[in-house]
Amino acid sequence: MPMLSKTNARNFFDEWSIYDQILTYNYMHHDDIFRDLRHFLGDRYGNAPFKILDLGCGSARHLAQALEDRSVIGYLGYDLSDAALAHAKSNLDFLRCPVDLRRGDLLDGVKAGGESFDVIFTSFALHHLSFVQKAEFFASTYQRLNRNGVLLLIDTMRDHGEDRSSYLDRYCAWLGSRCHSLSPEALALLFAHIRANDFPETDKDLEEMAVRAGFTQKLEISRYQWHHGWCFSKAKD
Fold it and tell me: What per-residue confidence (pLDDT) applies to 11?
């Protein structure tokens, strides 16, 4: 169960028209999930400053909207796609703080350097890792957070008792019924990417990984179909 290769990630996300249409038409509930995230950040931080590490940042299109009116004092983002990073640079230009964008996968990003963060964020990226790598991700994330820091995680989940094959069949069928603007060729590319690279867990499995790493139990921020938004708080020492 290999992690999404750097070549495959670049190839998929450099097909920018596909990814952009998914965002524009809200096919995967990005608008809804990030609206809830924006409310969460406002309730938690208000005008208080925080520093954020964004793993698998993509274009940062929706996160940028969620960060509006917040006091971000530092942003570091990692992604494998040069096209995505170029869009992120433009979308985050409004932030009045240092913005550092680097090419790398989310495990590279969470392990690199000794800097700590108040918020670590990842969206629709963790499911590309193997089970063992996901556990490694939670452990590394815990180490990179400040004392009262949080991990904000958005991702797709399998239903309880559902195997990967059943999930892939159901999820691709669901996307096919929604993505009306995509050509048959674009849908075929999308489905091939999902079937080759997506290894989602159940929410129970991820929560157990997080608790073993030291996090408190999760707070669910949002759920739309199989798309979940969670907050994991760093346990007090």
Answer: 53
